[in-house]
């Protein structure tokens, strides 16, 4: 497993991390059972991964609870837990709302610690910006939790540079969590800015909902409530053909190395110098083994350039 030294946090983190959004059976069709999820998470840890990312609104706390069960009996000091706050499921409308006020953050922290069966969280992220709460108030809450020893490092997810710079007036921000993949580069400039300011990045959507694994060669017939159809642009009919053109290049490179296409996509992401670690979902123990084997080889500079050129030609860097 390749590692990245997080500068502000001063810790070494695996370049592959466990992403658990896919455990949300409310939004993902075919989510794993609890037993399968625990086995997959533990397989990743055994394979050298030392970071697990979750959030309370993934499955109305079920994702956090699964992670809590998965880490029981393991050496907690060797595992970094990342969770979030500020985004809440609205059970009446089926949507979400934002609330990052001081008191709410305190309540969410207590809930997450219960779910995770731990007494501290390593990385604590504002999940999405709350336009109704000053970031000064939110950062005050985070600094307070840090002083209490309940969190170790502060993060912002899905933020822009303006919000990040404002937050930095009130305390140290250690890491951001933006979306990033071959076909989602909207946060690239922010990530490059952060790299210059010692702020590390945990990228999510590394495989764009699975489309960059090569598994989907036709738009999948998922239920309308499957979040992948709306959240990941690559599945939209107007973009899907272009993604399939990119897959031709990825298929060729994968065949050259005799590896699954997913390993090409993960290597491409983690070999970018502004990516610290890539969150990848756990779908089965078999997929865990495939993803871990990504780090037994690397793309050449020429292959990286070839992929980048094809992404640009197809306009996929502008989605």
Automatic annotation (TrEMBL):
Start and end residues of each NADP-dependent oxidoreductase domain: 16-309
Domain of life assignment: Bacteria
GO terms assigned for molecular function: oxidoreductase activity
Keywords, alphabetical: Oxidoreductase
Coiled-coil stretches: none
Alphabetical list of CDD domains matching this protein: AKR_AKR11B1-like
A cellular component annotation (GO) from this entry: cytosol
Protein name (record): Aldo/keto reductase
């Amino acid at each position: 497993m390749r590692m990245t030294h997080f500068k502000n946090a001063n810790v070494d983190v695996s370049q592959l991390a466990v992403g658990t959004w896919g455990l949300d059976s409310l939004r993902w069709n075919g989510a794993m059972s609890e037993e399968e999820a625990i086995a997959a998470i533990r397989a990743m840890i055994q394979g050298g991964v030392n970071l697990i990312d979750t959030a309370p609104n993934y499955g109305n706390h079920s994702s956090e609870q699964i992670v809590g069960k998965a880490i029981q009996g393991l050496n907690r000091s060797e595992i970094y837990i990342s969770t979030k706050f500020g985004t809440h499921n609205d059970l009446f409308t089926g949507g979400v709302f934002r609330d990052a006020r001081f008191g709410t953050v305190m309540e969410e922290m207590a809930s997450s610690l219960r779910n995770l069966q731990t007494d501290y969280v390593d990385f604590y992220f504002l999940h999405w910006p709350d336009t109704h709460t000053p970031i000064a108030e939110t950062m005050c809450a985070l600094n307070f939790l840090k002083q209490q020893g309940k969190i170790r490092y502060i993060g912002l997810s899905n933020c822009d540079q303006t919000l990040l710079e404002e937050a930095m007036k009130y305390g140290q921000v250690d890491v951001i969590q933006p979306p990033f993949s071959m076909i989602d580069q909207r946060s690239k400039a922010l990530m490059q800015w952060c790299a210059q300011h010692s702020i590390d990045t945990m990228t999510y959507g590394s495989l764009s909902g699975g489309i960059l694994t090569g598994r989907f060669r036709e738009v999948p017939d998922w239920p309308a409530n499957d979040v992948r159809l709306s959240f990941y642009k690559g599945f939209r009919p107007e973009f899907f053909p272009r993604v399939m053109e990119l897959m031709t290049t990825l298929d060729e490179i994968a065949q050259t190395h005799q590896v699954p296409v997913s390993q090409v996509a993960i290597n491409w992401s983690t070999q970018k110098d502004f990516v610290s670690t890539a969150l990848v979902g756990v779908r089965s123990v078999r997929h865990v083994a495939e993803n871990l084997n990504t780090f037994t080889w690397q793309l050449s500079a020429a292959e990286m350039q070839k992929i980048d050129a094809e992404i640009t030609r197809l306009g996929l860097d502008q989605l």
